[in-house]
Amino acid sequence: MAEPYLKVENLVKKFGPFTALNGVNLDVYPGEVHALLGDNGAGKSTLIKTLAGVHQPSSGTIYIEGQPANFRSPRDASAAGIGTVYQDLALNQLMSVTRNFFMGRELKSGLGRLRMDEMNQIAHDEMLKIGIDFSDPTQAVGTMSGGQRQTLAIARAIYFGARVLILDEPTSALGQKQQMGVLKTMMKVRARGDIAIIFITHNEIHSKLVGDRFTFLAL
Questions:
Q1: 170 and 150 in contact (C-beta within 8 Å)?
Q2: What are the backbone dihedrals phi and psi of residue 28, each rounded to the nearest 5 degrees, phi first?
Q3: Contact, 217 vs 13, CB < 8 A?
Q4: What is the residue-level pLDDT of the chain in tens, covering all 219 positions?
Q5: Residue 107 and residue 193: Cα distance in Å, rounded?
Q6: Residue 114: exposure state from Cβ atoms within 10 A (0-12, 13-18, ≥19)
Q7: Are 151 and 181 in contact (CB under 8 A)?
Q8: What's the predicted TM-score (pTM) here?
């Protein structure tokens, strides 16, 4: 078996006297979906934010490809290949698919002009790779379904280097058809074989449909 891309060992996170995470252990492998389940208040959100560099652990170690990692910011985590898709998706519904895909990372010419044709093609191609075919990537994100917006956020994270994709409740607040679409997207990403997925969910049925490994955080 391949080595885990991400390993969490005895991770503890305290906020003053309150212990949010108490000795969490986690191995996340490329080409697998690791389902992370637990009750509200069990620490799932804290673990996500710690892996994403928002919080620093009180003790314990995060390893990336066997080497200890010290994330002081989300930028550090992103540089190490951690891509996090939060429930709010960080998308501007009034902007186009392409502008959301490249938000803050736009391709520009030597004169500072946006290379829109190139960006439109990249956004189209990257979403097509994981199952969404947009004939018009200039359309506003607000016209997309919830499942399509999830796919956009996932495609964006992968394009910009995610080796571990953390998905925070991606099927919540979606209809059944859109939920199945998101699960199919996850399976397509897994089939690539080079990306690990951490799937945070309350839905045990969804976790069993796509999960390869399971971790339950208890209160």
A1: yes
A2: -125, 120
A3: no
A4: 578 999 999 999 999 999 999 999 999 999 999 999 988 888 999 999 999 999 999 999 999 999 999 999 999 999 999 999 998 878 999 999 999 999 999 999 988 899 999 999 999 999 999 888 777 899 999 999 888 999 999 999 999 999 999 999 999 888 899 999 999 999 999 999 999 999 999 999 999 999 999 999 987
A5: 28
A6: middle
A7: yes
A8: 0.93
